[in-house]
Every structure is written in structure tokens, then in C-alpha cells.
Design a protein that fits this description.
Length: 181
């Protein structure tokens, strides 16, 4: 489990930083992250960057799933989280997803972190951080900053190694096949 320190200059509610993970919560988080990893594997199987997402309600029911489909759909917004957010809103009949936790294998990008804010998602759990586009902790504090009208709880580093390994393998294979990533 990675403890993500707040960046210099970004204000965070101390109560939010003091997230204490019970063994049960951790086990639950890993269970749902495995479901998100299964979505990442669906993307990998069709040569998409392997990122997956599931949205889970407080009763532990997976409300929606999404996997990255950027190449197949030729759509720059076809990220795993966007599919999962839209499907959750459709399933629940509301844009307010405050009861849901989003499990995503990679730290959300600015677009997806923004969409999670717009959906008022209650909690975001991600696997590995994204040094190039991570917008929750790495590059920005979307979902954490009080500058926006909604904040979500964040847990980072759940099954971090498994999540990162899939991406590493994908890009290594892409390089080996002579294509540009
Ligand atoms: Zn994204």
C-alpha cells in the first residue's frame, strides 16, 4: 500500500489524509481491484493499453465496468473510467454517483479525474500511479483540491505491482513489435 503524501502547496483536509485501512477494507479493495484488472485484461486482449475500471456500491455490488478502447473506437476519450461512469449513471438513473467507489488500475488522467468529480463519486481507489498523466496525486490534485466543488476520498497503491506489470508488459511488447507507443 502506497501512502501518498499531499503535494506542497495543495491543501487537504487532514481528516481525509487519516484514512485507516482495516484488514477487511483492504481485502475488499483488493477483491474489486482484481475485477478492474480483469477489465484491463480485456483491453490487453485486443491490443489496447490495459486499463480497467469498476464502480461498486456500498453493498459491494459492481454497478458498472469499463476498459480502455481508445484504439478500437478511435476516440481519445474512450478511457476505462468514462465507460464505467456513463454505465453507472445509466444503471442508477442519476448523474450523482456519491455512493459509489471507483476502482481503476491506473491513476486517472485529468479528463477522467474531472469526470469523477462531475459524477460526485464518493471514493476513488487506484492501482499504480501515472507519472505522465496522473491527475489525482502525481501532476494535479483533482478530486483532492478544495478549489473544485467536489472532493473524493482516495486510496492509492492497491495491487500496485499487478496493475503496473500489465502496463509494462504491454509497452514492452509494443516496442518489440516495432510500433510506437
Ligand atoms: Zn483517463
Amino acid at each position: 500500500m502506497t501512502v501518498v503524501e499531499p503535494k506542497q502547496g495543495t491543501e487537504r483536509d487532514p481528516a481525509e489524509n487519516a484514512e485507516v485501512q482495516s484488514p477487511e477494507q483492504r481485502e475488499r479493495d483488493e477483491t474489486f481491484m482484481r475485477a478492474a484488472l480483469a477489465e484491463a485484461d480485456r483491453a490487453y486482449a485486443i491490443r489496447e493499453v490495459p486499463v480497467g475500471c469498476v464502480m461498486v456500491d456500498p453493498e459491494g455490488v459492481i454497478v458498472s465496468r469499463g476498459s480502455n478502447l481508445r484504439e478500437a473506437s478511435k476516440d481519445p476519450t474512450a478511457h476505462a473510467e468514462m465507460f464505467a461512469i456513463r454505465a453507472a449513471s445509466e444503471a442508477l438513473g442519476t448523474f450523482r454517483l456519491d455512493r459509489l467507489t471507483a476502482y481503476v488500475t491506473l491513476e486517472p488522467c485529468p479528463m477522467c479525474a474531472g469526470a469523477l468529480v462531475l459524477g460526485r463519486v464518493g471514493r476513488v481507489v487506484y492501482g499504480c500511479s501515472d507519472p505522465k498523466a496522473g491527475a489525482v496525486d502525481t501532476l494535479f490534485g483533482i478530486g483532492r483540491t478544495p478549489a473544485l466543488n467536489h472532493r473524493f476520498a482516495v486510496t492509492a497503491g492497491v495491487l500496485e505491482v499487478e496493475c503496473a506489470e500489465r502496463l509494462k508488459r504491454f509497452f514492452a511488447e509494443l516496442r518489440a513489435s516495432g510500433k510506437k507507443g
